[in-house]
Design brief:
Blueprint lengths: L4 E3 L8 H16 L7 E4 L1 H10 L6 H16 L2 E2 L5 E2 L1 E7 L9 E5 L5 H8 L4 H20 L3 H15 L9 H19 L7 H15 L3 H10 L7 E7 L10 E8 L6 E9 L4 H4 L6 E2 L3 H4 L1 H18 L3 E8 L2 E9 L4 H13 L5 H6 L3 H7 L3 E2 L7 E4 L1 E4 L2 E7 L2 H9 L4 E5 L7 H6 L2 E4 L7 H9 L2 E4 L5 E2 L3 E4 L2 E4 L3 E5 L4 E4 L4 E2 L2 H7 L10 H16 L3 E5 L3 H9 L5 E5 L9 H9 L3 H25 L4 E5 L12 H13 L5 H13 L11 H6 L3 H18 L5 E6 L5 H19 L7 E6 L2 H5 L1 H4 L5 E4 L1 H9 L6 H12 L15 H15 L4 E4 L7 H10 L3 E4 L4 H12 L1
Parallel strand pairs: 3-4, 16-17, 17-18, 18-19, 26-27, 26-33, 27-28, 28-29, 29-30, 30-31, 31-32, 32-33
Antiparallel strand pairs: 1-2, 2-7, 5-6, 5-7, 8-9, 8-11, 9-10, 11-12, 13-25, 14-24, 15-19, 16-23, 20-21, 21-22, 23-24
Helix pairs in contact: 4-5, 5-7, 5-8, 6-7, 13-20, 15-35, 20-35, 21-23, 22-23, 23-27, 24-25, 27-28, 34-35
Bound molecules: phosphoenolpyruvate and magnesium ion (MG).
Length: 885
Amino acid sequence: MSKFVYDFAEGNRDMKDLLGGKGANLAEMTNLGLPVPGGFTITTDACQRYLAEGHHADGLAAEIDGHLAALETTMGRTLGDPADPLLVSVRSGAKFSMPGMMETVLNVGLNDESVDGLSRQAGGNDRFAWDSYRRLIQMFGKTVCDVPGEEFEEALHKAKVDKGVKDDVQLDADDLRALVTAYKKVFAKHTGHDFPQEPREQLDLAIEAVFRSWNADRAVLYRRQERIPADLGTAVNVVAMVFGNLGPDSGTGVAFTRDPATGERGVYGDYLQNAQGEDVVAGIRNTLALADLEKIDKKSYDELLGIMSTLEAHYHDLCDIEFTIERGKLWMLQTRVGKRTAAAAFTIAAQLIDEGMIDLDEALTRVSGAQLAQLMFPRFDLAGDPASLTRGVGASPGAAFGEVVFSAADAVAAAAEGRQVILVRRETNPDDLSGMIAAQGILTSRGGKTSHAAVVARGMGKTCVCGADEIEIGRDQFSVGGQVVREGDVISIDGTTGRVYLGSVPVRPSEVVQYFEGDLDPALANEPLVAAVHLLMTHADGAAALKVRTNADTGPDAARARRFGAQGIGLCRTEHMFLGDRRELVERLILARTDTERNDALGALQPLQRADFLDIFREMNGLPVTVRLIDPPLHEFLPSLEELAVQVAVAKARGEESERDERMLAAVRRMHESNPMLGLRGVRLGLVIPGLFAMQVRAIAEAAVALAAEGGRPRPEIMVPLVGAVQELETVRAEAEKIIAEVVGDSGVKVLIGTMIEVPRAALTAGQIAEAAEFFSFGTNDLTQMAWGFSRDDVEGAFFWRYLELGIFGISPFESLDRDGVGRLVRIAAAEGRAARPGLKLGVCGEHGGDPESVHFFHEVGLDYVSCSPFRVPVARLEAGRAAI
Ligand code: PEP
Ligand code: MG
């Protein structure tokens, strides 16, 4: 029979699938002997069954009974006992952290009778007991029974107005007792029944509500954003309540064993005296720095520091912690390996190596290509000394600017119009998620580094400044020091320093990019972040089996990619060389009526091409350069049919006909295709237009010979696009070989000839094609397009949103390789190609070459290299190393 409930002492940190992150780590802390309140965890499996069947799995209720009885025995109290009640919290906790997205109900077990028992436990503190009770009704009403939260807020507001006070804390026990009566009325009005007095019924309903909160809109949205699978379900933790709101010797806080923003060692966190758990994370009150706890309660502070180092030593990583102090007694409510910024991830991984906690391979698992990409974003250039409007807490780094908006809905609407916005809020809550996703950055006036805004922004890699408490936020403007900033005004926020500027501040390259470029400001050379990146990149390069090349088609791009560590060019798209001033030459080629006219046009293009190639070969001296023969349909270089037709008609009407325009129009008509992507392009062009490929091959070979003559070492590889049958390749190859032999002579230059594998038929006949190819390069853009039958230029906006919504795929297959379908074609082609020609060189040059997930796949398949845009080269290098360990 399944087991659905685990006591904390029965679990461990490796059981996250079943117990969720929170439950698994509470179990781990319990078994480490740390002060964790008693409790038990209901598994994700129980949640999945509840969501599938709409009721509890058989046997769950009995198991809960058993574990509750054991908890009551340990605590020496019975749930909701009028004389001396045990109260519990009911907390969600999925495998992956989803901060604030699901529900929690505190103080379960309170009712009209046990509220007095609680007061006695608290030394006759009626105010505390009635405040706890009204919180339960409010939380339970909202979470379990969908009572609109505003109605409770209104009742609370009215109680304060009636009494003529401003703060909740100014309400006394009698006021709160009256408020409970008012809350109960709100509850009954909306639910049609009284607030449940039976403690066990409260518990059951709260557990079900937490299960259901897995499918709350904001949780669904968060999962989609973070790519968390939709079917995992949440575990539910039932934990004996401890109270941080019992007076000044109580409190609650959040701590990090290192700074999650920068990785610096030290004591980081926020503390709120006389407050209950959620108050800190909600960012509702401004908190004290954790270090201040030393002055308030040195004993608890020292104990906490001791526990923090125990946890670091145990997890070998940065941990974050939630704790509560109840009348001088410290309790641990949660720990986990903490989220951190990209910079902190690198810095901490390097620190942990220094401290002997982890080795280099392990360190590589602690960072990712996505984080490295974030570190390559530009920073603000403060050379002009822009005046800072105010300063908050740098909660999630980055440099963002945009128009100010004050609501999530406005942020979403503005983003849909393509405007960049900064979402400005007093604090954020989970309902703001859609706006946070849409905005460039988030600015809040309240809350610390652990507030909702900070945690969620860091998780998304979005710039965030929080707790800028000089800001007064109104409905459609905010003011700071007499300066008013209105909706639509542009501000800039620096998520590293916490500075806020009026207007848009210019940006400069990040120090990590400077490091890759080799022009790092010497003052930054020893920065821990740069040193960490250097250390981990060096290790990744040493570990990687895949080489990383770049897609580049100009000398400067090639040079930059080489500085970024590219080991050659995997794709030089020659068509760019047909644009700009050269368009006219291409037109001449297309309009040519005789061999002579065509040869003249080609003859004019050839030296230009040769010069382009020489530039690139020079920059990549000694490294392979794959030049792809022209691929797109030639009509892409001609004017549009509609425009030209109108132009010719107008000219005719005016009696100003031009023979050239009419010939052009006829050519455009002749070349018009309904499905150009499946039409006259790639190798087909080479077979149809005499001399076109020959001109390019000659230019490549001549450029290589020219570099060799300069003493360089060119390594050209000619790549034929869109091949679907070996005969196509053989035909092109025969002509190319003749030209190469003629040009190269005895210069010693060697030119390889290979093909792209981007038509499914090529993948399926790879064994035959390999007979005529010295290398394959997978063009996964076209291969995806043709395998799925998705037009790569149209689908993203047209219907992918619906596919993503339905979960047909979790991410566009043009972004991250579809392993099952397109990946299978890659596997077949790699295996059959290599079987036919052992040692066949295999690479990939589609966009997927720079996608971290896909890089891991290409490593698995055993390709020789991936090729990606220059800026993604470091990301691919890191991922190639990570894939190999
Ligand atoms: C491809 O199809 O994957 C490819 C690299 O070629 P292009 O994107 O130029 O069609
Ligand atoms: Mg292609």
